[in-house]
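Researcher: Please translate sequence to structure tokens.
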Amino acid sequence: MTVLEQAFAAIDAKNAEDPNYELVDGEQVPKELLYSRRMSARLQDFDPEAPETLQIAARAQHICRWQIPRDSYPMNRTGYLKWREDLKKMHASITTAILENLGFTEEFRDRVAFLIRKKLLKKDEDSQKLEDVICLVFLDYYFEDFAKGHPEEKVIDILQKTWAKMSEAGHKAALSLDLSPKTRELVTKALT
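Model: Translation complete:
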């Protein structure tokens, strides 16, 4: 097993502890384990030559996310932003510890943590690629369920914000996704 494969296995082991499950092809799969594998697969499609730092950041994007529930923060914009920031710190910390145990250099660990914290979007190429992959996974796997639970105007606003975070390459990839007719209609409304 390569060191990269060992890192993936350690991240997967943590995410396999998620008490929340999703049903996929008749099988119950820990939610964050499923998400992390989707992130890796989408990154592979989006950038097959992605550096190992980016591959690990994508795999660890939501590592142990269930440990900090959204409802433990005020249910307003300020609470949401604080929750997201605390999650990024936790994801980076857990991943850094895994990488240290596997003998990765401090420079490598720092780069992965930087990417997980999504620093310098639009300025750092790998941070931007990670953001694109996050948005693509959201659109492909999670958007439709999200849209069902919110008014159309909020959904369109979220789509516009998501689109603004993406690069031109991300936009192109998003438009090539096999989206449902309803999702495609909402995307079209958001972009016009």
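Researcher: Any highlights?
Model: The chain has a mean pLDDT of 93.
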